[in-house]
Amino acid sequence: MKSFLAAFSVESYKLRRSYVLWATLLFIMFVTSLRSVEPDWTSYLGEVTFLFASVFGIMAFGVVMSWVFGREYADRTFKDLLALPVSRSKIVMAKYMSVVLWCLIITLISFGFAIVLGLIVGIPGFSAAIAQHYFILFMLLAVFHLLSCAPIAFLASISRGYLVPIAFAFTTLMVALTVGPTSFGAYLPWSIPALHLKMSDSVVFPLDGISYVILLLIGCIGLISTLVWWRSADQK
């Protein structure tokens, strides 16, 4: 456990000090500020949450995941990492947990920024109930996106860099925007967050159970594939 905590502390520190994380957050905050002209809080938070569900989550979390798993190859520190007295599985889990932690943190900061900005510009109709409703949606969408981005870690590992996983994240975004409105959208992991938001006015979990099972399976497959590759692949 001590070795895992040490590895997690190091990975968290590297991510916290990276420009990628904070540049991603600044981009989200910038686009959020452009939506502050909405006529009321429901429209404002609804628009911000939709952007997070359809675009921000896929690309932002995908870029962070790509950087965490791809930078060791780009910086040529991969062999040094494997030489540490820490198992490969613990290194992978430490990287995953650091991504989860900091993606949730930037989600919280993004939502907090949206609330503060809305209060500053004086958008009418604010209520705690509205804020609570969209806060719950924001956090659920963050979890969904973290699950759907899990395969990116595997792609970054096998491709030994950033380009393939970032291209994959962009491709899944385009596919989600295209397939999402069709009957197949509920079965495509990268369309599910936006569909969940679209149908969530009346119930907390509006889609059929199979949609959430697919998301969970994608997350598990991505994590397990990355663990297996790191443990068994010939690391040259």
From TrEMBL:
Does the keyword Flavoprotein feature in the UniProt annotation? no
Query: What are the entry keywords?
Result: Membrane, Transmembrane, Transmembrane helix
Per the record, the domain of life is: Bacteria
> Which positions, given as ranges, span the membrane?
20-37, 49-69, 99-123, 135-155, 162-190, 210-230
Q: Does the keyword Transmembrane helix apply?
A: yes
By its UniProt entry, which PANTHER family does this protein fall under? INTEGRAL MEMBRANE PROTEIN-RELATED, MEMBRANE PROTEIN
The protein's name: Bacitracin ABC transporter permease
Q: What is the lineage of its organism?
A: Bacteria, Bacillati, Bacillota, Bacilli, Bacillales
